[in-house]
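Action item from last week, closing it out:
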Amino acid sequence: MKSSRFLCVAGFFGSAAVLLGQAGPAVPASAFASAIDAEITSQEKLLVDAAEAMPPDKFDSGPENLNLRGSEFTGARTFAMQVKHVAADNFAIWAPLTGKPEPAGLHAPNGPPEMKSRAEILKFLKDSFVYSHKAASALTSENALELVEFRGSKVTRISLVVLALTHISDHYGQMAVYLRMYGVVPPASRPMKMS
């Protein structure tokens, strides 16, 4: 009798677990992954806000177009190219952490050559951050030093996290200068409104 009750209870909880597994909440990320995710969110806000702040008529411009006397900007990326490059490399840098190859058609480090419109490039950037968040969700303090393949070398997972975040910071700095060259104060540099 006890064994049949046990089987009924076990069956009930087993069925509930299956149902909850199908519709239930995702497994919470480790504290390590949550900390990395917060950093991604911070960089995402800076970069997406900066990308959206560039006026549409200046989006495909760069310092070479300004012909600044005494400057050397020959071959420098346009603003649009900067945004596309960051997005492509976000996918490429985070891909090894997913255990899957880079998404097809990425053309990292410069992004898909056929992608030209502001709307497409902004979507590509935002999608790259969605991908970054997903890739970071599996990080733990235990797997951070595991080696993964990246561009023909074995590197630690945490080194890719550092690369991704510093890469974004580097290009944010360049994009902030581009914005100012075209008379736009980067959103993160604007005075805070006091309520």
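Closing note: The domain at 29-188 is CATH 1.20.120.450 (Four Helix Bundle (Hemerythrin (Met), subunit A)).
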